Amino acid sequence: MAADLVQRQVAVIATPGSPKATVAAKAATREIPIVFGVGTDPVKLGLVTSLNRPGGNVTGVSYFTNELGPKRLGLLLELMAGSADVVMLANPKSATTDSAVQDVKAAATEGGRQLSVLLVSNNGELDAAFATIVQKRAPALVINADELFFSRRVQLVTLATRHAIPAIYTSREYVEVGGLMSYGANIPDIWRQIGSYTGRILKGAKPTDLPVVRPTRFEFVINLQTAKALGLDVPPTLLARADEVIE
């Protein structure tokens, strides 16, 4: 697809939400401007030279959602006070999975908890993963950031609810379809920024002069209806810190 866009000599390529798409686009052209939206460090991915001076033909928005894994774990453990074991769902095909898992494992160890990781790389493996979670009697679940999970968020939330497993997700879109909690950047705002950068480039701006944008505010959303369905009492300290509580 990237090669096809280059052959068509499009004015700009936007790749919101997928590191793989951005990597493919960058490999296909050094001339056509590329505006990305990725959930991890674009410098580590080799997309830009630095955040302030991207260099080359690539810039965009990095919302660092993978780096927020330890924060999500902490919020979940605060809700599930006393629980020792936590399971993390991750996609082994993602370039950022290893570092994300290491960060959450380190946070779990520091908090005296044990983290198990289940790898899911396609839709068909989700049911099997939840069967394993039930077998392990895991009391809580952390969903890692990944486009596969985001695209299957209804299925994920349904499985977690069906098996009565408290889970925390990466964005409010999960909570809006019945997920328990989420912590992350506002996705629509990120995509608007990608559109803004794309518009500026179409008007003549150069990617190398547009620093990579990072979100300054993150949302913590709680679904009280789901908490009640799971038989959970959300501590007042969590409710007070929530940016939105869905009742």
Give a written overview of the molecule.
This protein has 247 residues and is of the alpha/beta class. The protein folds into 2 domains: 2-64 and 186-209, Response regulator (Rossmann fold); 66-184 and 219-246, Rossmann fold, CATH 3.40.50. Helices cover 41% and strands 18% of the residues. It has 11 helices and 10 strands. The strands form 2 sheets. It has a 7-stranded mixed sheet, with helices on both faces. The chain has a 3-stranded parallel sheet with strand order 1-2-3, with helices on both faces. β7 (167-169), α8 and β8 form a beta-alpha-beta unit. α3 crosses α4. The radius of gyration is 19 Å and the shape is elongated. The mean pLDDT is 92.
Poorly predicted parts: none
Q: Tell me about the biggest sheet?
A: 7 strands, mixed
| Annotated CATH homologous superfamily of the largest domain | Response regulator
Distance between the termini: 43 Å
Name of the top-level CATH class of the largest domain:
Alpha Beta
How would you spell out the order of helices and strands? HEHEEHEHEHEHHEHEHEHHE
The assigned structural class equals alpha/beta
Any idea what the radius of gyration is? 19 Å
Q: How many domains is the backbone divided into?
A: 2
Strand order of the largest sheet: 5-4-6-7-8-9-10
